[in-house]
Design goal:
This protein is of the alpha/beta class and 163 residues long. It has 3 helices and 6 strands. Helix 2 crosses helix 3.
């Protein structure tokens, strides 16, 4: 039995990314790929560029990763003053990918932004800047010191298996 191929959404680094000589390089936190490998899959990093149509024909699963905010226009809202990192081209690419995954019934794991994106793909909306809502702990910005949150699950470790 071959190991399942898991498509992992990536991000395009800024054109003037300090300390990296390759303008606009594609990237993804290594933890996503390592987690797919530990679960028995083979991670494939996808640069959000061009058209996603047909890409899912060649993979067994999709991992929609975390990242910056979705464009609030994708769910019918005006942006909050603290909305950050919006890139409508990437939003449109990933929304099309999510729709295709749903249509093809591709197993999909959505993390943070990915979960928000999947919600919007299914017709949902989002609360913007949730720290302003009572009882919500701050999330921080991934990639910044103390920017992420560790979330633990009591479920068993996920395993990848081909469809």
């Amino acid at each position: 039995m071959s190991r399942p191929l898991v498509l992992v959404t990536g991000r395009r680094l800024p054109k003037k990314f300090v300390g990296w000589p390759h303008a606009g390089a594609s990237a993804s936190p290594r933890g996503y790929q390592e987690s797919v490998q530990r679960a028995g899959g083979v991670p494939l990093l996808l640069d959000p560029f061009g058209s996603p149509t047909g890409i899912l024909e060649r993979v067994d699963a999709l991992l929609l990763t975390g990242g910056p905010d979705l464009d609030p226009a994708t769910y019918g809202q005006e942006p909050h003053p603290k909305t950050y990192g919006v890139n409508r081209a990437i939003d449109d690419f990933e929304l099309a990918l999510a729709h295709e995954a749903l249509d093809r019934e591709i197993p999909t794991l959505a993390i943070c932004r990915g979960f928000q994106l999947l919600n919007v793909a299914l017709g949902g909306t989002l609360y913007q800047h949730i720290p302003e809502h009572p009882g919500v702990e701050p999330h921080g910005r991934p990639g910044e010191p103390n920017g992420g949150r560790t979330q633990r699950s009591t479920s068993r470790r996920a395993r990848c298996s081909p469809r």
